[in-house]
Amino acid sequence: MSIPELKKIQQLWQLDWEMISVNTEYYTHSFHPYSSKYVPQIPNRIISALSLKNELVLDNFVGSGTTLVESKLLGRNSIGIDINPLACLISKVKTSIISFSTIQEVSRFLLNLQSDILEYRKNARSVRSEFVLAKLVLNGKLNSNITKWYHPNVICELHLIINNIKSIEDPYAKDFLKVAFSSLLRSVSNSKSGFGNLMINKRAAPKERIFERFSLATARMLKNANDFSKAASNSDVKVLNGDSRNISFIDDNSIDLICTHPPYMAAVPYVEYQRLSLWWLGYDLSSLDNNMIGGRRSRPDTPQRFFRDMKRALLEMKRVLRNKKYCCITIGNPTYRGKMWELNQLIKRHAIDAGFTFIKEIRRGKYHSTMGKMKEEFVLIFRNE
Hints:
Blueprint: H1 3-13, H2 41-50, E1 56-59, H3 66-74, E2 77-82, H4 85-95, H5 100-124, H6 129-138, H7 152-166, H8 171-183, H9 210-231, E3 237-241, E4 255-260, H10 270-273, H11 275-280, H12 285-291, H13 302-320, E5 321-332, E6 335-336, E7 339-340, H14 343-354, E8 357-364, E9 377-383
Parallel strand pairs: 1-2, 1-4, 2-3, 4-5
Antiparallel strand pairs: 5-9, 6-7, 8-9
């Protein structure tokens, strides 16, 4: 390692990583809630220090696209991979440059939808929402389980919104509105707040003004997308629905930096947390839970499967990363079945076994609880020698 490179690394770990009062909701980062995403300042610092403009950054556990947004802002090309189709949808929308024609398309859509909503509300005074809902369920247009999570008036308006979205021809406008729609599905449901697992609140009061909430979320997204588009570079972003254990579609020695945030083994119920969005958008929950790393959380062999799969992912990361380039993994140590798992140590060991050279571990959360139940978070820096 050269002396200038060594100095750059030393400057990186001398920064204040607690970042207690930083804004994490700027530009498109605020588009959609996503369980256990990391603060954007982490990939921003890593990308700035360990890559150059126009180089290629990989996040093979892309989640909600935080790394890709920062790469686009910093002038790096990027590839994001995730097995979760909802993650890919959110990431594509968050990293796309929005055009004036798309803004106009979305604005027209909201006006037309408002007319349909007002017509529905007028008719609902004479035809009860429960009757309309029963017809939708009986006709197979809705998953019957959804009736546990929403009051009838909410379901009827949500169904009207998503049906109108499906009729849009502009692919980006359609995806943009799907993300806006998905972003409010939990907040208007009967779920108890503050839980990763969905839990029904049987005493939940009916939510009102669903269209107005959707319209407000969309308007905020339009403003932030426009601001992002002005600040972003013209670098290339690719989002691929794929499996990090097999990324054969990426060439050997083609990536200049890996910056990623893998799942917390089985401590975070990703599929459960996103169940409502996956339902409404027509994705296969069962298939996703069966295939994702850390899925099927109730099985006793979950830790063994997680580490087996992470070994495969690390070998792929080693294969695609260029020589003398860096791989940065941010991870926390979760509690699963009453035991705290030191993922930082375990992943460090597996990465070294895969052929990486360990450079540095940056610990954050030492003095403040920033990760909920996981009091600390670790940024592991490796080099491909």
